[in-house]
Amino acid sequence: MPIKDKTLYPANWPQIRQEILIRAQHRCECDGRCRFEHVGGRCEERHKREAQHFFGVVILTTAHLNHNPRDNRRTNLRAMCQGCHLRYDAKFHAFNAVITRDQKRGQLRFPFQERFVGIGV
Q1: Is residue 36 part of a domain?
Q2: Is the entire prediction scored with pTM above 0.90?
Q3: Domain tally for the chain?
Q4: Are 74 and 20 in contact (CB under 8 A)?
Q5: Rounded CA gap, 24 and 96, in Å?
Q6: Full domain range(s) for residue 85
């Protein structure tokens, strides 16, 4: 996913991302956190190769496991293919969609928000 607000990321984000890709040996690091059972325990998708489980070429993304783009501890970052990253973030994206719709209507759901702190972690 493209970065929406680049101000949330450090100036050296490209170097951090490259470090994560190298650590992952340009292979998706998802170990089932996306709720998809990977044969052998780890996703087999590889950066810039034809996808095994969806159509197209794999582009590895860098996922923040706690969904906080300011938390760039290497233990919080994983190289993930588009499929795993989207599945991993699905609840988080759905939650944000509710908040966005409510804000457009002039409503805020603070009790609702509190139930989803740390979603997907």
Answers
A1: yes
A2: no
A3: 1
A4: yes
A5: 29
A6: 6-115
